[in-house]
Design goal:
By secondary structure, the chain is of the alpha/beta class. 32% of the residues lie in helices and 22% in strands. Strands 1, 2, 3, 4, 5, 6 and 7 form a 7-stranded mixed β-sheet that branches. Helix 4 crosses helix 5. It is elongated. The termini are far apart.
Length: 231
Amino acid sequence: MVSERTENERTESERTGNKRAEPEMAEPKTENIIVLASLSPRRNDILKRLEIPFITKPQNIDETVAKWKLPESVKELAEKKLKNALTDSSLKNMRWFLAADTIVSCGKRIIGKPSSAKDAEEFLKFLSGKEHKVITALALFDRNRGKIVVKHDTTSVFFSKMGENDIKWYVSTEEWVGAAGGYRIQGKGEFFISHIKGSYSNVMGLPINLFFSMLYDAGYPVYKSSGSFHE
């Protein structure tokens, strides 16, 4: 009897054309979605945590710098990435764009991302027991205003002395891959950081306080945005 009743109910539903209503999904306004011109997982994570809607559109540019000058060179690279994103015809209807660049400097040496485990090991040996600077530049563009704003933040990071076994172990974790300076402060790299002076999120690649002030000054609806769009 149960099977028969279920079949009768199904037949009646099909005959009358009754369908279950699909729930409506709320979406943030398209004009509030930020195009993040970066492949950095850390920047993605920060935007998700802040519940700012965004899509990722990484930019492949030549990051060669003939002669480094800080912080100007870092700001120029961030702006270069942003301008490259603006040439993407698929993004012509997007209003907000964000690009960033992070470098590490120690003394007169500029340290980027290691290209191999050997590079990472050499970077860490050099940074061991020293203070270094992490500089992140942000470039923000509002299509409605047609203006690019570029600012930067600097954090001092103090490394403890690392032994050879410490360095070999850390390199084996592969946290160095894609990380300026060859380490990640939000991961196991923090084992070897005694303290910092400045923004923690700046070392991750997106200084939140600076980012907030840039958005606010540009008229972005920071307090109204919610939801994280990414791809």
